[in-house]
Amino acid sequence: MNILVTGAAGFIGSTLARRLLERGDRVVGLDNLNDYYDVKLKEARLARLRAYPGFEFERADIVERERMARLFAERRFDAVMHLAAQAGVRYSIENPSAYIDANLVGFANVIEGARRSSVGHFVFASSSSVYGANAKLPFAEDDNIDHPVSLYAATKKANELMAHSYAHLYRLPCTGLRFFTVYGPWGRPDMALFKFTRGMLAGEAIPVFNRGDMVRDFTYVDDIVEGVLRVMDRPARPDPAWTALAPTPSSSNAPYRIYNLGNNQPVKLMRYIEVLEQCLGKKAKLDLLPLQAGDVPETIADVSRLAAAVGFKPATPIETGIGRFVEWYRSYYRV
């Protein structure tokens, strides 16, 4: 297949692109290489992809409407995996306009290009953040998500609604994946595991929000990618059981699906830090802080629908995943 991966220099995007190339697909990777975090890390991820003859890189910003229209007019893609976005819950409080531009305007440009060029399947990254103020656990796809607690979460819910309208109006097969706290080698420096590792190796106190009373459904990146691949190969179809008298938000009479993609093995944040201490051979100094605006205390994924649909659910334990991250971190940064 010929596949467009937006955000190809990113953590998940580069890992997914590599898997696609290894199985024989052709990949056009698109990224604007912005400086939200270390551009050298993004370039290093791209360098791994450039070694494959089936990879082609397009440096472009999804906010540029004419540029995106030209890309889709000049090429034909069997599928699009849309990962490009402004990430980060806390940064959305500081710089909301970046999220409006990338996550709303940019999303619209990419899905419109997919529609106009008759892409076979439009898959996009949503987030567990959409569950917002929900207290019912585990989070399930048909839960109400009308109370986001960050602008980032609001933009991801908007993406799901925009995709449904395209699936309904244009019969564009669309699948949204709500990722749960992804971690692993080649990860993002703004995420907890990266910050903790860097701080602990430097002998600095690490920031622990809500004084450590947090639970997360930490999901290893290879499990995320496996889930994405299986979903991508099964374009969304109308749900024959869906009814307008009792509508469910995760499916539709249009070719549209929403799935949780999480580990379904919730871990206390302090246990996560304990495993990292074991892998690094260093004790952490903790800077215990209050819950940050936009954060939620717990995230747990119900992945039964994903398992039923594609025969897969994430299962990598944090002991394995953190160990692999630490091995990569020491090698990449030579520490």
Structure description:
The chain has 335 residues and is of the alpha/beta class. The chain has eleven helices and 13 strands. Helix 1 (11-22) links the parallel strand 1 (2-6) and strand 2 (26-31). The protein is globular. The N and C termini lie far apart (40 Å).
Helix and strand topology:
Layout: E1 2-6, H1 11-22, E2 26-31, H2 39-50, E3 55-59, H3 65-74, E4 79-82, H4 91-94, H5 96-116, E5 122-127, H6 151-170, E6 174-179, E7 182-183, H7 192-201, E8 205-208, E9 215-216, E10 219-220, H8 221-232, E11 256-261, E12 267-268, H9 269-280, E13 285-288, H10 304-310, H11 318-333
Number of continuous helical runs: 11
Our Rg estimate from Cα atoms comes to: 19 Å
Decide which structural class fits the backbone: alpha/beta
**Could you state the oligomeric state of the chains shown?**
single chain
Q: What is the percent of helical residues?
A: 40-55%
Compute the number of strand runs: 13
- Alpha-carbon distance between the termini? 40 Å
Task: Give a short account of the largest sheet.
Answer: 7 strands, parallel
In which order are the strands of the major sheet placed? 3-2-1-4-5-6-11
Beta fraction of the residues?
15-25%
**What is the N-to-C order of secondary-structure elements (H for helix, E for strand)?**
EHEHEHEHHEHEEHEEEHEEHEHH
Residue-averaged pLDDT: 95
Basic shape: globular
